[in-house]
Amino acid sequence: MLIVQKYGGTSLADGQKIQAAARRATRLAQQGREVVLVVSAQGDTTDRLIANALEINPRGAVREMDAYMAAGEQLSAGLMAMAIGALGYPAVSLTGGQAGILTDGVFGNARILGLNNHRIRRELDRGKIVVVAGFQGVNEEGDITTLGRGGSDTTAVALAAFLQAEACQIFTDVDGVYDRDPRRFPGATRFGRLSYEQMLRLIENGAQVLHDRSVEMAREHGILIEVLSSLTGSPGTIVGPLEAV
Fold first, then answer.
1. CB within 8 A of 93, min separation 6: which ones?
2. Helix residue spans in the chain (DSSP H)
3. In the prediction, which pLDDT does 162 show?
4. pLDDT of the residue at 243
5. What is the Cα Rg of the chain in Å?
6. Beta-carbon neighbour count of residue 57 at 10 Å?
7. At what angle do helices 15-30 and 71-86 cross, to 10 degrees?
8. Distance from C-alpha of 57 to C-alpha of 49, rounded to nearest angstrom
9. pLDDT tens digit string along 99-111?
10. Pairwise CA distance, residues 220 & 124, whole Å
11. Which residue ranges of the chain lie beneath pLDDT 70?
């Protein structure tokens, strides 16, 4: 059975957190699961990349910006594959293009159109954990495109859908979805289960734990998403079809 896990930037902010994620993935693989990891850029890397680019060219250059911005996730993917390798388990890092993620041509806010999964499938069949750089794909010209802020969530759900994964787990710095930001409101209530529609309403009202396009894609393909803490790994919030809630 295949599991897709996604780790956000705060969950990869330093070497210890990367190693913790690598250990979690390796344990799953040792239990006989096929594992695909999707990673975001570390910590505040994306913000720093944007600031650097605007300093060079304040007017912007959308195609080149995407080629540049995609590097943050690629750095995380390489580090994660090295961390898994240090534990003695084989792993391979892939860019969005190498993973076969096909998008439209809207630079900076592309939509995923499909997946050529031959490379991922080949690496899994070789017994490797596959680490995919989130937030990116390639258009029909082979140009790198990015999916907008939070787009690594969409990468993870798309891979879960096209690879027919058993589960799609989104690891973050909170232990699920709350009615308010638990870091600001100690009395916030955590949801055990939410429908896609309930999750989309929370996003419309400012919840930032999931990207709206990831929930829309999950609804389209019937994928269950679990949002859980990268610190504890304890069960979190399930987002799924109304009948499963």
1. 74, 77, 78, 80, 81, 131, 132, 133
2. 15-30, 45-56, 62-69, 71-86, 118-125, 151-162, 196-204, 212-221
3. 96
4. 63
5. 17
6. 10
7. 60
8. 12
9. 999 999 999 999 9
10. 26
11. 242-245
